[in-house]
Each structure stands twice: as structure tokens, then as C-alpha cells.
Design a protein that fits this description.
By secondary structure, this protein is of the alpha/beta class. The chain contains 8 helices and 10 strands. Helix content is about 40%, strand content about 25%. The strands form 3 sheets. It has a 4-stranded mixed beta sheet. A 4-stranded mixed beta sheet has the order 6-9-7-8. It binds iron/sulfur cluster.
Length: about 280
């Protein structure tokens, strides 16, 4: 049994929030630079240049990448041979959020009740997903999710007999309808299978895969590419001003499902793709 103190988890959670609030990873900068070479339309080129410049200013001057500093979503995989010592794990993660958002002047965006809408003032609670896995480590991932792109999420319960083409049409419909609202170029997470709730969570978990890692199953890797090509023909373009690059990457996470079901869930992440992870 390995003992991990919540102080370590809290410290790493704070560090991850800081890193992804101000620094754009090189692989994402590379994607935008590549898009810039592909675009001819002046507004598309200008949008991508501004996105790149915004990233430079954010890291240089410690200004958040976006004024919407996001909901904090944690994904933890906890090895069953780990004993967590210290305060409650949930408290430790929420303290990390409150502390990071206060210290780094990040906007607090969470209201305590969806209808009465009073800001908690701390950006807590965070949204925490925990899976128990083999081993004696904890994998901690964080996603900072802006409201604009989260609001474009979608779920459709397909029939098992529906074609892959009809699923792609649904995805296209959602992206076109969302237009500029999720601040494209989008990183698109797709959950396929499971139950409705599992598909929705998987559409977010899908976004945790490294940008440059294709799906390990060639069938889904090919489907991801097909969806990306289709969506980039919609013409929505960077920031919705038109262009060839609406979607930066597509990530599918599939799951076993009921014989009568075929849920498909979409989670859109804007160009400000703020995520990070560590294994403790
Ligand atoms: S969708 Fe993303 S880039 Fe657009 S305002 Fe929200 S957090 Fe910022």
C-alpha cells in the first residue's frame, strides 16, 4: 500500500491550473501555425494570428489565456493500492482551485445554484470524476472549460441501425449551428456508446488524449480523420469568420453499450484548450 498525502495532490492541482491558464503547449501552437499557412481568407488568417499572439502575451505577462477562466474539471484515476492520507480528497482539490484562482487573478465563474445564480466567489466547486484502477499511483488530469464551448455540448441517442454517415451528419449539424459561439478552431471530444451519462463523460475524457496521439484502434482513428475532414469543409473557420480550419482535432472515446442503444455525445473545446495532467 502506497501512501499519498492530499497536500501533494493539492500542490499538483494548483500547479496544473496555473500552467494551463497561462501557457499554450508547443504542439498546440504548432497546429495554429500550420493552419495559418493553409488559410487564404484575410479574416481567418487574422484570427489565427491573434490567437497565436494572445498565447504569447498570456505567458509573457501572466494574463489568463481567456477572460473566461473556466469551470475546473478534474479526472482522477486512483490505483487501488493507494491510501490517501490527510484531508478529504474533494476538499483538497477544491482548496487548490480556490487558492489558484485567487492567487493568479483568474475569473471566478461558478454560481452555487443554477437558477438563483449567486457566484461562490472561489470558482468552486470543481467537477470531479474518479475512477479506481490497478496499481499504486494517482493520475490527475485537469480541464479548464469555458462556458461558450461547454454550452455547445450535445447528445443524441441513435438507433443501433443508424449509419455512421447519419452520426457524422449530426456532428456537422451541431458544429454549424454552434458557429462562432464555441470559439473555433475546436478540439472535439466524442463519446460513443455506454449509456447517455457515460457517453457525455467520455466526450470530455476523450479530450485528455495527447494531441498528437491517434486513436489506438485504426477503425476509430480513420473515423476521427473522416469527421475532421467533413467538419473542416463546413466553412465555419477560425473564430467563425469563415475559413478552412473549423476543427483542430477530433478525439473519440468509445464504450460498450446496450444492444438497443447507440448514444453519441459531443463536447466542444474552444481554441483555448487548457488541459494538463500528471501521474503521482
Ligand atoms: S469558448 Fe473558450 S475562448 Fe471562447 S470565451 Fe469561452 S473560454 Fe474563452
Amino acid at each position: 500500500m502506497r501512501i499519498i498525502h492530499t497536500d501533494i495532490i493539492k500542490r499538483e492541482a494548483k500547479r496544473l491550473i496555473y500552467d494551463c491558464s497561462f501557457f499554450v503547449p508547443p504542439e498546440i501552437k504548432e497546429i495554429y501555425s500550420m493552419m495559418l499557412t493553409e488559410e487564404d481568407a484575410p479574416l481567418a488568417r487574422q484570427s489565427l494570428s491573434i490567437i497565436l499572439e494572445n498565447g504569447e502575451i498570456a505567458s509573457r505577462e501572466e494574463i489568463p489565456l481567456c477572460q473566461d477562466c473556466g469551470s475546473v474539471i478534474f479526472f482522477l484515476e486512483i490505483g487501488q493500492d493507494v491510501h490517501i492520507e490527510g484531508s478529504s480528497l474533494y476538499d483538497a482539490l477544491n482548496e487548490a482551485v480556490a487558492c489558484a484562482y485567487q492567487k493568479h487573478y483568474l475569473r471566478k465563474s461558478i454560481v452555487s445554484d443554477p437558477l438563483r445564480r449567486v457566484n461562490t466567489g472561489t470558482n468552486t466547486p470543481s467537477f470531479i470524476h474518479i475512477d479506481i484502477v490497478d496499481g499504486d499511483k494517482i493520475s490527475l488530469h485537469v480541464l479548464l472549460k469555458g462556458g461558450g464551448s461547454e454550452n455547445a455540448s450535445a447528445l443524441r441517442m441513435f438507433r443501433p441501425t443508424d449509419s455512421i454517415d447519419s452520426i457524422i451528419s449530426f456532428i456537422e449539424e451541431v458544429i454549424v449551428k454552434a458557429g462562432p459561439n464555441p470559439c473555433p478552431p475546436i478540439f472535439l471530444g466524442i463519446g460513443i456508446g455506454g449509456t447517455a451519462d457515460v457517453a457525455m463523460v467520455n466526450s470530455k475524457k476523450a479530450l485528455l488524449r495527447p494531441i498528437d496521439a491517434p486513436h489506438c484502434d485504426p477503425f476509430y482513428a480513420e473515423l476521427e480523420e473522416r469527421i475532421k475532414v467533413t467538419l473542416n469543409k463546413t466553412g465555419v473557420g477560425p473564430l467563425g469568420f469563415g475559413g478552412k480550419n473549423t476543427v483542430a482535432a477530433v478525439f473519440i472515446k468509445e464504450a460498450p453499450t446496450h444492444i438497443a442503444s447507440l448514444p453519441v455525445a459531443l463536447n466542444l473545446n474552444c481554441h483555448s484548450f487548457r488541459k494538463g495532467g500528471i501521474v503521482i
